[in-house]
Every structure is written in C-alpha cells, then in structure tokens.
Amino acid sequence: MLCFQGLFFCPEAASLLLHNFCIYHISPPGHELGAAAVCPDDPILSVDDLCDQILEVFNYFWLGSVMCMGAMAGAYILTLFAIKYRDRVTGLILVSPLYKAPS
Questions:
Q1: Distance (Å, rounded) from C-alpha 69 to C-alpha 94?
Q2: Angle 95-25-35 (CA atoms, 0-180°, nearest 5)?
Q3: CB–CB of 92/67 below 8 Å?
Q4: Three-state DSSP class for 102?
Q5: How far apart are CA 88 and CA 64, in angstroms?
Q6: C-alpha span between 87 and 19 (Å, rounded)
Q7: Number of separate helices (H) and strands (E) present in the chain
Q8: Which of 23, 24, 55, 76 is exposed most, by the fewest CB atoms within 10 A?
Q9: Which residues, by range, are in coiled-coil regions (predicted)?
Q10: Over the Cα atoms of the chain, what is R_g?
Q11: pTM exceeding 0.70
C-alpha cells in the first residue's frame, strides 16, 4: 500500500480507479497480515514459477486481459509475466521508489 499512496492523494483519481476498475491485490506468501513465517524447508520459487502463479490467479477469477500495477520486485515479476503472457496484459504501471535518474 505504501508504494501506491501517491495515487490516492487525489480524491478524483481514487474515485475513478475504485468506481471503474476491479482491483485485485496479490500478496506473496508470508506477506499477508497475520501470516505465519515462511518455513525454511519450503522450496524457493523462481520468477517463472511466480509468473505462472499469477496466471493461475487470473484464471481462477476468470480475468481476461488486465492492466497490472507493481512496485519493486512485483514490477519485475509483472514485467516478466507481460512478456510471457502478452495476450493477457493490456498495460503495465511499474513503480520504483528507488531511482537515480528518470527511466
């Protein structure tokens, strides 16, 4: 949520987003509020595995072509997802709070 606070400082923009889009927030394992610690014996997923899990979520909710928003590592994974599944992504909004020059 902290990565996207700037989008919600403008009430008109927040209203437009919340009234015209269906928003799904996908948290990685262990990031949910009150989640148990990730077991060190659990396998470490590759970025390809994470991309495929995003596809599973989209299919579960019957989502067709979507616009994705991601920050930091999520932006990287969504970029890979968009490359791998071009027909499922209409657009990307990638946010990086760490930068040294415009990109």
A1: 6
A2: 110
A3: yes
A4: coil
A5: 6
A6: 25
A7: 3, 2
A8: 23
A9: none
A10: 15
A11: no
If DSSP states are collapsed to H, E and C, what string results for 30-66? CCCCCCCCCCCCCCCCCHHHHHHHHHHHHHHCCCCCE
What is the C-alpha separation between 82 and 61, in angstroms, rounded?
18
Backbone angles phi, psi at 72, to 5 degrees: 55, -120
Question: Reduced to 3 states, what is the DSSP secondary structure of residue 97?
Answer: coil
38 CB contacts (<8 Å, ≥6 apart)?
29, 30
Structure tokens at 58: 């989209």
Q: Rounded to whole angstroms, what are the CA distances from 11 to 8, 20, 95? A: 7, 14, 20
CA distance 79 to 90: 12
